[in-house]
TrEMBL record, chain A:
PROSITE patterns the record matches: RESPONSE_REGULATORY
Post-translational modification 4-aspartylphosphate, affected residues: D76
Transmembrane segments: none
Protein name per its UniProtKB record: Response regulatory domain-containing protein
Keywords: Phosphoprotein
The keyword Phosphoprotein appears for this protein: yes
InterPro entries: CheY-like_superfamily, Sig_transdc_resp-reg_receiver, ST_Response_Regulator
A Pfam family recorded for this sequence: Response_reg
The organism of origin for this protein: Hibiscus sabdariffa
From TrEMBL, chain B:
Domain notes: Histidine-containing phosphotransfer domain (HPt) contains an active histidine that mediates the phosphotransfer.
Organism annotation: Hibiscus sabdariffa (roselle)
Protein name as it appears in the record: Histidine-containing phosphotransfer protein
InterPro entries (UniProt xref): AHP1-5/YPD1, HPT_dom_sf, Sig_transdc_His_kin_Hpt_dom
Cellular localisation: Cytoplasm, Cytosol; Nucleus
Pfam families for this protein: Hpt
UniProt keyword terms in alphabetical order: Cytokinin signaling pathway, Phosphoprotein, Two-component regulatory system
């Protein structure tokens, strides 16, 4: 099924086919900023995903160690205790195959490349936009169809 | 024109001016579109968290710049960088732009320049706080008068 650009303001507030498809998708938002966690949580929920949040890389890893799994992880880079790159490397070492997407304020190509090399599938610069989320959901639904 | 229409007109004019004067950009509009009847206070809550972030980060920057033994510009830059990320995420365009300028002074390790930028960031944050408070007050007045908040694209 092809997803069109579905995130108009009307489709964000009514149930659509896209919501039903996305309802099977789960996401984890990892960011040390409570504001960003709240924002991304709501943004993903509007697209019909079930969302959990974690405030740093270590908490994210602990969730996986306790048996949680998510289709999508939005990973900030700069976080205390364990940053996004370290957490991503650790998750990949643990065998986690979720889509991990960096969402960072880092604007140097060098820094973003280093973050990608930790094992990200994609990396976006903040702010995360509706277009970014649309793109990710298309990728996720494509992956699900292939499996 | 009845009171609801008057207030709605005021709201639209004020919203438009916020965009026109660069206080907020399209990211703020996207934020407003996320609010619905299940989360009627979403925008106010996110904006409050943003202002808490601002205050904390501005204090960090001020403390780091006060160090007489030598300023840790990396530390200042880290806070500016974080504030840039938060401000861009909610569409606080003038705060974000002030952060961009700030970062180049951090890179140049220019303490005077940094102090001027800190003043600018603090100023923009105060202005925005007042503007958004006015916006939210208008929203409350419209709702109290039985009207609905217009969508301003």
């Amino acid at each position: 099924m092809m997803l069109g650009n579905c995130a108009t303001s009307s489709s964000l507030s009514t149930t659509s086919d896209e919501d039903i498809v996305n309802n099977n998708l789960t996401a984890l938002v990892v960011d040390d900023s409570p504001m960003i966690r709240k924002l991304h949580d709501m943004h993903l929920k509007k697209f019909g995903l079930k969302v959990q949040v974690a405030e740093n890389g270590k908490n994210a890893i602990d969730l996986f160690r306790c048996g949680a799994s998510f289709n999508l992880i939005l990973m900030d880079k700069e976080m205390p205790i364990m940053d996004g790159a370290e957490a991503t490397r650790e998750l990949r070492t643990m065998g986690v195959t979720s889509m991990i997407v960096g969402v960072t304020s880092l604007d140097s190509i060098f820094d973003r490349q280093a973050f990608m090399e930790a094992g990200l599938d994609h990396c976006f610069t903040k702010p995360l936009t509706t277009e970014n989320i649309n793109f990710l959901l298309q990728e996720l639904n494509k992956n699900n169809e292939e499996n | 024109m009845n009171i609801v229409n008057q207030l709605q007109r005021q709201f639209i004019d004020f919203s438009t001016s916020l965009h026109r004067e660069g206080f907020v950009d399209d990211q703020f509009t996207q934020l407003q579109k996320l609010q619905d009847e299940n989360s009627p206070d979403f925008v106010v809550e996110v904006v409050s968290l943003f202002f808490e972030d601002c205050e904390k980060l501005i204090n960090n920057m001020a403390r780091a710049l006060e160090q007489t033994q030598g300023v840790d510009f990396k530390q200042v830059d880290a806070s500016v960088h974080q504030l840039k990320g938060s401000s861009s995420s909610i569409g606080a365009m003038r705060v974000k732009n002030a952060c961009i300028a700030f970062r180049s002074f951090c890179e140049a390790q220019n303490r005077e320049g940094c102090l001027r930028c800190l003043q600018q960031v603090t100023h923009e944050y105060s202005l925005l706080k007042n503007k958004l408070q006015t916006l939210f007050t208008l929203e409350q007045q419209i709702l109290a008068a039985g009207g609905s908040i217009p969508v301003v694209d």
